[in-house]
Specification:
heterodimer; A: about 500 residues; alpha/beta; Rossmann fold; 6-stranded mixed β-sheet; 17 helices; B: about 350 residues; mainly alpha; ABC transporter involved in vitamin B12 uptake, BtuC; two-stranded antiparallel ribbon; two-stranded antiparallel sheet; 4 strands; globular
Amino acid sequence: MSGVSKSFPGVRALDAVDLELERGEVHVVVGENGAGKSTLMKILAGAYRADAGEMLLDGRPYLPTDPEDGLRHGISLIYQEDQLLPGMSVMENVLLGRWPSRRGVVDWGDARRQTSRLLSKLGIDLPPHASVADLGSAQKQMVEIARALSIDARVIVMDEPTASLSDREIERLFEIIGELKRTGVGFLYVSHRLDELHRVGDHVTVLRDGKAVFAGPLSSVATERLIGLIVGRPLDAYFPSRSARVGEIALRVQGVRRAGVLTDITFDVRAGEVLGVAGLVGSGRTEMARAVFGADPPDGGLVEVGGRSIRLGSPRSSVDAGLVLVPEERKTQGLVLPLPVVDNIALPNLEIFGRGGWFDWRRARRDARHRIESLQIRTPHLGTPVESLSGGNQQKIVIAKWLARDPRVVIFDEPTKGIDVGGKVEVYRVINALAETGVAIVLISSELPEVLALSDRVLVMRGGRIAGALDAVTATQEQVFALAVGRHVDAA
Amino acid sequence: MPPDERVAATADSPAVEQAGSRHLVVLRLIRGLIAQGGPLLGLILLGAVLTLLSDRFLTVANLSNVAQQIAVIAIVALGSTFVIISGGIDLSVGSVLALTAAVFAIAFQNLGLPLPVAVVLGLASGTVLGTANGLLITAGRLPPFIATLAMLSTARGLTLVITEGRPLSSFPDEFRLLTSARLFGEVPVSVILMLALFLVGSLVIRHTVFGRATYAIGGNEEVARLSGVRVARTKVAIYALGGTLAAVGGLVLTSRLNSAQPIAAQGLELDVIAAVVIGGASLSGGQGSLVGTLLGALIIGVLRNGLNLLNVSSFWQQVAVGVVIALAVMTDTLRRRRR
């Protein structure tokens, strides 16, 4: 297999990326969140279609129409979350959709033989009839690998395969990868765990903003250099400046925890301060925001707003205390898409705009018109369903709906995700304006320049914990990234 | 997107901004009717065809009869519209209707309580059963389909237990007036009651915190929860309302038949759901209107009545209702997709 070149000019998710994968090679792809790794994998597997560029498989043009077509060509993608049917057995999952049968009747004996053969080839000790629901995450992964082999996969794409594995399980995975390499299977291996890459990978491609900024043998780049390549983006000039005065502590979070998700989350934010939260995907940032706000109830801890502790796990009591959340998934958690602009802005304020249970439409419209003006939301009129607005304007409506409550603390979770540059700048202005009026801001973002430029301080999360706090003025992207991946480097 | 379709999509929202002007309720109702497009057109067409085919259709006596017949379905469907807009479903309305009617009849006849007290007891038992549905769904975390399916069986069983399987008949004239008395010449009191309930319901769904929360929960429950809407409390209130209105339907039916039947209103839930979806509500929630539901109930009533006048057997009537449900929802879906 040689010569894979892709480009995605519209969203610039991938910008003319070249990638070569030899038989029996492990090719590592690294990059920040949103650098284009997933897009690349999905195009290769056939889940997305490229706008331009071409792929060659064994010298012949390869253009998968869907993931099944990709599978037929021997390209198998193993996602971060397992794609197994929990209620079915190992053998049913391994041979999913390709169960051996005669005239529509499944031949279970043959299915068991085939599965056993594959499992023993991988050196996996699992009974074929075991239920997948009873397996651990490592075993599930082995089942997925066995499934990939059952279709004679020539290329296996793995997304963060070690994210949920223990050290010993990782060893086992690397052994299996090594064995399969010898039989000529090529691996595209995507991972954030930089320290393990040198042990498993042969070549590396570094993606940044959809471009391949480096490609070469992994042995030629040390981990420190790799970090530099991954983040090495200059601070963009489009961050507006802010002159907020930092006041009293507005939000205090102490020892908030959720079993298996969050451990000892402790921090505070002052009025007028912007606290950035950085970390890799899966480091627990969104979970932290949801636990503090009460969307997912924490197992314990303390959350105080303005010196008064609030009831844990109750969005309602958070909202009443002035702690609000602008969630990451605005379309599923922030907006009722088919409802008009005015209904969405009024949603948290039904009682404020009501008198004795009756809802005051005039007040709701007046408020909505006021927010539309002050946040410069572009909408044809108040009755327009929010689903027809642009991403940036939708985001501003999620912000607008909270403003009638004069919040003390606003948690923004990835507020600029999927928004074009112009929209981003407007969101930055809104965040700054809020801070200037004395609102405490918690800003979660995967875009390091954004976090560093907008925040006063930056918390870095890793594995559900706060890995460290940095002064945003002096911190570098390299320092943040090193904390996020758990590796200490000296400031460049 | 033509303006009338946009209104249709969210008929009970201020889809078109009316800068602060106060509207007469009647005016708004007419606008709502126009916004209904599909169902209204269907009803007019159906009426026109039946007028041509039978000279007995378009008479005051017949139309008043149709209105009388749909009153029970429509009143129960009023509650179910709230339930369905909130993204739920209530399969228990028929059984709840029968049980509340039995409670009323037993309180009045066997216990000898005064008529107003018996009426209040009947209504209250509907509220209690609806609240039970709501608690099963929120506190018990059962899907609405399962919770109300359980209630369907439980309430029907309890009805048979407390009535010992026998109907309770013969009620005083003042109770029979609910369906026998006619105002303005030909309009039965029960029809006036139905229209009054729809008027109040329209105001509630549009102009109260409760009504707006109902739409928000059906549109996206998680967004509503994260926005501080009291989702569980609102849902319990929605099902309690549904139970109460089923009880109102039970009183109307008992008055009309002069008898509380333990097997009354079996299968009513299907007619009720049909009326709501013919009226443009989406079973996935967030969409629907009370005017639509009233039209949906009328379409079912007019269709049955017309087929009776034309001497079509009741077996074929069932087929016709099925076809109408499929057609109504299909045209509605296609119309929306074109936007």
